[in-house]
């Protein structure tokens, strides 16, 4: 299943079902958003790189582990994840935008571990023969967190005790209006659903033990870290 570095390992998932409801995330709108952004995405994300670095550190990866990068986008997290699991490990990037995934594929020659890229939405991972991983990263994937079907499917792919780290935007405290202006504009630009920005990680809470939430950037950004519990998903 794993593809060695240098090969373009994109697995097309035939079934990309339509979005479930109109109040939560909108899958078609997200595809359009990231089709437009793919070419410039890496430049736009430069200011956020220290957050990515910290979020991947929170996974505490070790050699030989399997880690899933949900909504891996252009693959900016892949090199650090690959370094964390070493050449005996496996990194699986799941991403529904073919345009974003093409950029991820182009980065693979710089990764050390086996890396597999899967073209799929998070709610469809059960159809993709995804492994049960030791760790999972959800870096700036608010739409995924706000889709209960996706969260449930993803949690079936983390072993009990495995680390789950999510990072992203959240509403800052009321005393920080400029931070909230930033959250509002960034969320409109990068998500299709503003619902749940007060506590984006709360959809993970039922599935995680020891959930810790670290606020950054005057509370406008969070990194949530927990360990998968034994609750069936
Ligand atoms: C802000 S980008 C983050 C990309 C990457 N995680 C990073 O940190 O650079 C959000 C990504 O989530 C992906 N996405 C949106 N809806 C998704 C879904 N339902 N399942 C999986 N990924 C999704 C988008 O295509 C996009 O690549």
TrEMBL record:
Kindly state a single biological-process term from the GO annotations of this entry: methylation
User: What Gene3D superfamilies does the record point to?
Assistant: Vaccinia Virus protein VP39
The segment(s) forming the Methyltransferase domain are: 67-162
Name the domain of life this protein comes from. Bacteria
- Provide the alphabetized UniProt keywords: Methyltransferase, Transferase
Residue ranges crossing the lipid bilayer per the database entry:
none
- GO MF annotation: an example: methyltransferase activity
- PANTHER family, A to Z: JUVENILE HORMONE ACID O-METHYLTRANSFERASE, METHYLTRANSFERASE
Name assigned to this protein? Methyltransferase domain-containing protein
Which species is this record about? Aquincola tertiaricarbonis
